[in-house]
Each structure stands twice: as structure tokens, then as C-alpha cells.
Write a structure and sequence with these properties.
Strand content: over 45%
Structural class: mainly beta
Helix content: under 10%
Order of helices and strands: EEEEEEEEEEEEEEEEEEEEEEEEEEEE
Number of helices: 0
Distance between the termini: 100 Å
Shape: rod-shaped
Largest sheet: 6 strands, mixed
Radius of gyration: 31 Å
Number of strands: 28
Length: 252
């Protein structure tokens, strides 16, 4: 008895081992996620059924990408792609499951062939685990963590009365809005005024700018690119020489 294994017309090393009378064990190590052909001869004559086909899959060649496995807003359809075209095995089962921050299953669906599209709608802020299995094994990188955020939960502190050439600063709290980036844009008469966002701690930020005119400035805030409700916020600036009342007595 003799054997040979081939993949894409290239020979693959194989080993035929006798395990018992009239029983043999054939071993080979696939190097590609492609169908392999197995040839078996008895007395130099091909055994009926040759060549035998062995579908080989390579989960390392499955790629998963898209916003749905990175960062998405709450309440919207989150989509991502799963590309199995280079992994071999046309009939291999591909499964996707999504778990919310409390590890509850989020309904999801998968459609397509070769390159699939997965979709789900997150209802809670926080990390969601996207588990992708191919041929009963998780693909490389799974579970993928998608950070779900909600710009509506950004809390903007009071913007104080500003003074020309003096720094104006106010606080913004994003702890309830999820993980993300806060950005600001300050304008006056449609002219941009330089502003900065400083992170004071996880979820706590201070927005700063220096007014150059005694006019109302507009402060536009965005969280992960989504407009913060109420934005742009007006920032009043005192005219030069105008008295400014200060002190604890104003709070009584």
C-alpha cells in the first residue's frame, strides 16, 4: 500500500503507518487552507474512489473588520464584515454571536457568501464582545471588542462669562457616554477661535479657549464625531471695562 497527498498540484509530505493487520494510518500536515487530494495505491494500482478529497480550512486567514467590531453609537445598526474567501472550506459553518456589557446575547444576523456582512443593534453603552467562529473554532482576534457610546449622555458644565484675552474654561463629563474622544470647535462671527480639550481623568474633560472679541462665542462639541445635544453652546464675553460681579454672596 502506498499513498501521496497533493495541494494545488504540489506534493505534501505524508506518512503511512501500519496500525494493525490490513489497517493503516495516513498522516500529513496541511500548509494551506485549500482542498487536498489523497491518492492511495494497492500493488501500484489506484484504489477505487481516487483521488479522495480532504477540505482543509485555515481560520487564521479569516479577516473581520468594520465599525461593528470597533466603535458604534447606541441604538443604530452596527455592521461588520467577515472575509472567509482565503480560509478554504466552502461548506464550513460560520457563526457570529454578540454579547453586551452584562454578557447578555444581542440579536445578530449574518448574510452573504465568501465575504459576509454581520449586523446587530446595541442598546447599551459599553464594550460589546463580537464572537466569530469558523469551523467550530474562534477566528484569530475573537472575541472582538466594540465600544458602544451615546453622545446624548455627555454632560456639559456651566460656561462662565468670559473676558477678552483671558482664558475661559468649563468642564465636560463623558463617564456615562462610553469610551470615546471629545472634540471642540469655538467660533465668533464665523471665525474660528483656538480651543483645547484636556483630559483631567477617565471621562472628565476641560475645554479651554481665549476670547478675542466681546461678542457671544459659539462652542460646538462632538463625541466620537457625533454632535453633543445642545451644541453649539453660547459663551458670553464681557465688553472691556464692564464691571464683573464675583463672590460667594452671589450664590446665596
Amino acid at each position: 500500500l502506498s499513498s501521496a497527498v497533493a495541494c494545488a498540484r504540489k506534493e505534501v509530505p505524508c506518512y503511512l503507518q501500519s496500525t494493525d493487520k490490513d489497517r493503516y494510518l495516513l498522516r500529513f500536515t496541511p500548509q494551506e487552507g485549500r482542498p487536498h487530494e489523497i491518492f492511495v495505491k494497492h500493488n501500484d494500482i489506484l484504489v477505487p474512489g481516487n483521488p479522495f478529497r480532504c477540505n482543509v480550512i485555515d481560520g487564521r486567514q479569516v479577516s473581520v473588520y468594520g465599525d461593528g467590531v470597533k466603535r458604534v453609537p447606541v441604538g443604530n445598526v452596527a455592521s461588520f464584515n467577515v472575509d472567509t474567501s482565503r480560509a478554504g472550506g466552502d461548506q464550513v459553518e460560520l457563526l457570529v454571536s454578540v454579547l453586551d456589557p452584562t454578557m447578555k446575547t444581542v440579536p445578530s444576523k449574518l448574510k452573504g457568501s465568501g465575504v459576509y456582512t454581520g449586523e446587530y443593534i446595541p442598546e447599551d453603552v459599553g464594550p460589546h464582545n463580537v464572537v466569530v467562529t469558523y469551523g467550530k473554532n474562534q477566528v484569530q482576534g475573537s472575541p472582538f471588542v466594540c465600544q458602544v457610546y451615546d453622545a446624548r449622555k455627555v454632560e456639559v458644565g456651566r460656561i462662565p462669562m468670559g473676558e477678552i484675552d483671558a482664558e475661559t474654561a468649563f468642564n465636560v463629563n463623558t463617564t456615562r457616554a462610553g469610551e470615546g474622544t471629545l472634540t471642540s470647535e469655538v467660533t465668533c462671527h464665523n471665525r474660528r477661535v483656538h480651543s483645547t480639550v484636556e483630559e483631567m481623568g477617565p471621562g472628565y474633560h476641560t475645554v479651554k479657549f481665549v476670547p478675542q472679541e466681546a461678542e457671544t462665542h459659539q462652542v460646538a462639541l462632538a463625541f466620537n464625531g457625533d454632535v453633543v445635544p445642545g451644541s453649539p453652546f453660547p459663551a458670553e464675553v464681557n465688553p472691556p471695562g464692564k464691571p464683573r460681579a464675583m463672590g460667594l454672596g452671589l450664590l446665596k
